[in-house]
Amino acid sequence: ENFKPAQVLNSLKWPDNHLTTNRKLHFSITKDDDDVHFEIDSLTGDLFLSKELDYETTSHFLLQVIIKDYNNNPPQNNTVFLSIDVEDQNDHSPYFQDDFVVIGIEENVPVGTLVYTFNAKDGDGSFLNSKIQYSLEMRNGGENPFLIHPSYGTLTTAFPLDREITHSVILTVSAADQAINLTDRRLDSLAAKIVILDINDNSPSFTSSPLSYVMEDVEVGFFVHRIIAKDPDEGRNGEVTYHILSGNENKSFVLDKTTGLLTTAQLLDREIQERYSLTVMALDDGSPALSTTQVLTIVVLDVNDETPIFLKQLYETAVRENEDPGEFVIKVEAVDRDAGLNSLLRYEILPGTGYEKFRMNSDSGELVTTASLDREIQEVFSIKGSPSKSSTAQLYLTVLDENDHSPLFAKTQYQISVREDLGEGSAILDLFASDEDDGLNGEVTYSLIDDTFGAFAVDSVTGSIITTKALDRETKSQYTFRAVASDSSAHLPRSSTVRVVVHIDDVNDNDPVFLQNPIRAFVPAQTAVNETVATVRAEDVDLGPNGAVVFSLMVAETVFQIDTKTGDVILQEPLASKDFGTQLLVRASDQGISPRTATAMVIIFTEEQEEEILFSNSLYEASVPENSAAGGHL
């Protein structure tokens, strides 16, 4: 098919036994044939190619050639049929319909699963020139988890897939024809991105500690522990929620299912229960969901909140007179429900008549005489003893260093303002201090001194100060503490301090609170119009517009209106009757961007409807022990 036009393709010859000198012949191709690919020399019979051939369009031609012999009279016509076969040349490359395809396959399919079938075309006509063989190459290196069938183009899995190890693979798929001459072979390629689709095949795994400690005197809502579990799956398959399965039957703790924050829901008492074992479940959001459990042990640490108690309120004994000093009298004993040092008791004798004649062993509680007793002088002694509570002390150990340069902070003081709704673990400030010394003497670490009220901590290496709990401006609007930069010298390290001031900016997170609700107002029937008949008061602990309260009536009234700023309820029309009564719903709103509101009821009566309110008794009496805890019922 690549034969060039204008060249002699063949030549028609008259049979030798017919040849004569100067034989006059005329050659022509029949006019009925519409093919214009061939021409013949009318005199010589040479066959020419007049137009390029294409095997894929026409692979065979049948020409009818007329030979007219003018040596006969009349001239004689002879017909010759010429069959021409076109040989195929490899002049077409294989081709794919697309240059790039994206294919998704789930990670849990078995080895040998059909992923995709590539189908390349080749315009050549003969078998080998159009026979396609496929090959595969992975662009980003590593082990190729796929195979392609060289003849059929089917892509299958060769190894198990794991999306958590490999998210996607980019393959180069090539299609080459099989021309006999290797140098004549043609090929085409495309890029295929295989995306490994996630299957919920991983259970959450706990990374947080299974042990936590909490003091027994913490308030309700105190942060105890943060439960953390990781799930390497994707999307909802990797979203973890937390749940308490058992161990919290008395509802002592609350677990936030989203954040994993465990807080106290009740006051704790180590003397009642000193250890909790909570079975906690981490559950992903896949379908079906997978879960993991962990037994979280919470140890309640002792606080010295128990008073020692004597085993007996009254001890009675007898001792002979005239015995030498040092005579054993009795042993008293008290118990303290606290633990450790808080439960260690020391005994003493309280001052009283004749107490100087006795001595109490402060550790054992044994009472002995310090003088000889005389019954005739004093027969009965009444002695009071008491165990004393222990006290604590702190020891500060200062390590001297021999460095000649102290770390130097970049600023003499740090001040920063943060919103009170800033999340726990947020970085608010980066400290930086430099030390001119070399080596360990110049390596700076950071720490905080003074009380940050558990709100802040510092990364000892980077100097980044982060929040360690939720902030509340209404509880504390400013924190002032010192940061310390210390070098790492093994001998006499040096340090310097800087003052850090953190201002807490207000967020509108508190509702207005009415000082009284409901409000009862007794209004004479003859009250003049525009008189103030009642006043509502409300407070909002937020700042600025967030704490500025305005008042309004929830239901429009013609008889009364309320002053939006003062809360005064003003009579607008004369009262209709002497037995008039109504109830007004008052809304108090702050002026924050997203206002918060509260409602109260104002009950208005005329004098005729006034009800007398009387106490059940004219005098109430109660006895209260001097050590009673605040909030106790009288």
UniProtKB/TrEMBL annotation:
Signal peptide: none annotated. Keywords: Calcium, Cell adhesion, Glycoprotein, Membrane, Repeat, Transmembrane, Transmembrane helix. The keyword Kinase does not apply. SUPFAM superfamilies: Cadherin-like. One of its GO terms (cellular component) is plasma membrane. It is found in: Membrane. Its main location: membrane. One of its GO terms (biological process) is homophilic cell adhesion via plasma membrane adhesion molecules. This is Protocadherin-23. GO terms for molecular function: calcium ion binding. InterPro entries: Cadherin-domain_protein, Cadherin-like_dom, Cadherin-like_sf, Cadherin_CS. It comes from the Eukaryota. Residues 1-96, 105-206, 214-310, 311-409, 410-514, 515-627 form the Cadherin domain.
